[in-house]
Amino acid sequence: MAEITLDSYLLDCLLPDVVGHDRRPASFIIYLYLYRQASQQTNWSVRMSHQSMATATGLSRSAVQNALAHLQNRQLIASSRAHPTAVPLHRVLRPWLRLNRKKS
Question: What is the DSSP letter of 40?
Fold first, then answer.
Protein backbone atom coordinates (compact mmCIF):
# COMPACT_ATOMS: atom_id res chain seq x y z
CA MET A 1 0.00 0.00 0.00
CA ALA A 2 1.33 3.43 -0.95
CA GLU A 3 1.94 6.04 1.72
CA ILE A 4 1.00 9.69 1.43
CA THR A 5 2.14 12.68 3.39
CA LEU A 6 -0.55 14.90 4.89
CA ASP A 7 -0.04 18.59 5.43
CA SER A 8 -0.15 19.26 9.18
CA TYR A 9 -2.72 21.97 8.43
CA LEU A 10 -5.27 19.25 7.63
CA LEU A 11 -5.24 17.84 11.14
CA ASP A 12 -4.30 20.93 13.13
CA CYS A 13 -6.67 23.46 11.54
CA LEU A 14 -9.03 22.02 8.95
CA LEU A 15 -10.23 19.06 11.06
CA PRO A 16 -11.43 21.16 14.03
CA ASP A 17 -12.82 23.82 11.71
CA VAL A 18 -14.85 21.60 9.39
CA VAL A 19 -15.85 18.92 11.91
CA GLY A 20 -16.08 21.01 15.07
CA HIS A 21 -17.14 24.46 13.93
CA ASP A 22 -19.06 23.64 10.74
CA ARG A 23 -20.34 20.32 12.13
CA ARG A 24 -19.72 18.62 8.77
CA PRO A 25 -17.69 15.44 9.40
CA ALA A 26 -18.76 14.01 6.02
CA SER A 27 -17.15 17.02 4.32
CA PHE A 28 -13.85 16.29 6.05
CA ILE A 29 -14.05 12.60 5.08
CA ILE A 30 -14.69 13.50 1.44
CA TYR A 31 -11.90 16.08 1.46
CA LEU A 32 -9.43 13.52 2.82
CA TYR A 33 -10.59 10.94 0.30
CA LEU A 34 -10.20 13.36 -2.62
CA TYR A 35 -6.87 14.60 -1.19
CA ARG A 36 -5.56 11.02 -1.21
CA GLN A 37 -6.76 10.33 -4.75
CA ALA A 38 -5.68 13.69 -6.18
CA SER A 39 -2.26 13.66 -4.51
CA GLN A 40 -1.25 11.03 -7.07
CA GLN A 41 -1.86 13.51 -9.92
CA THR A 42 0.33 16.45 -10.88
CA ASN A 43 -2.68 18.77 -11.24
CA TRP A 44 -4.30 17.60 -7.96
CA SER A 45 -7.48 16.63 -9.85
CA VAL A 46 -9.50 13.45 -10.02
CA ARG A 47 -12.55 12.50 -12.11
CA MET A 48 -14.93 10.62 -9.86
CA SER A 49 -18.67 10.08 -9.57
CA HIS A 50 -20.65 10.77 -6.44
CA GLN A 51 -21.62 7.11 -6.24
CA SER A 52 -18.01 5.90 -6.40
CA MET A 53 -17.07 8.30 -3.57
CA ALA A 54 -20.05 7.09 -1.56
CA THR A 55 -19.04 3.47 -2.02
CA ALA A 56 -15.40 4.15 -1.15
CA THR A 57 -16.16 6.16 2.00
CA GLY A 58 -19.28 4.41 3.29
CA LEU A 59 -21.32 7.61 3.04
CA SER A 60 -24.63 7.94 1.21
CA ARG A 61 -24.68 9.57 -2.20
CA SER A 62 -26.67 12.51 -0.83
CA ALA A 63 -24.13 12.95 1.98
CA VAL A 64 -21.38 13.06 -0.65
CA GLN A 65 -23.31 15.65 -2.67
CA ASN A 66 -23.86 17.81 0.42
CA ALA A 67 -20.21 17.45 1.41
CA LEU A 68 -19.02 18.47 -2.05
CA ALA A 69 -21.29 21.53 -2.02
CA HIS A 70 -19.91 22.54 1.39
CA LEU A 71 -16.31 22.04 0.26
CA GLN A 72 -16.96 24.13 -2.85
CA ASN A 73 -18.45 26.91 -0.72
CA ARG A 74 -15.39 26.77 1.54
CA GLN A 75 -13.21 26.90 -1.60
CA LEU A 76 -11.46 23.66 -0.68
CA ILE A 77 -12.36 21.94 -3.95
CA ALA A 78 -13.36 23.09 -7.41
CA SER A 79 -15.60 20.76 -9.40
CA SER A 80 -16.51 20.98 -13.06
CA ARG A 81 -18.33 18.93 -15.69
CA ALA A 82 -17.96 18.87 -19.46
CA HIS A 83 -21.76 18.57 -19.71
CA PRO A 84 -24.59 18.05 -17.17
CA THR A 85 -24.42 14.24 -17.15
CA ALA A 86 -20.61 13.92 -17.25
CA VAL A 87 -18.60 12.53 -14.35
CA PRO A 88 -17.26 15.57 -12.47
CA LEU A 89 -13.61 16.53 -12.27
CA HIS A 90 -12.71 17.53 -8.72
CA ARG A 91 -9.62 19.66 -8.14
CA VAL A 92 -8.38 19.65 -4.57
CA LEU A 93 -7.45 23.15 -3.46
CA ARG A 94 -4.95 23.80 -0.69
CA PRO A 95 -5.41 27.49 0.16
CA TRP A 96 -3.09 27.30 3.18
CA LEU A 97 -0.15 26.90 0.79
CA ARG A 98 -0.92 30.32 -0.71
CA LEU A 99 -1.06 31.82 2.79
CA ASN A 100 2.36 30.37 3.63
CA ARG A 101 3.87 31.84 0.45
CA LYS A 102 2.55 35.31 1.28
CA LYS A 103 4.10 35.16 4.77
CA SER A 104 7.53 34.18 3.40
Answer: T
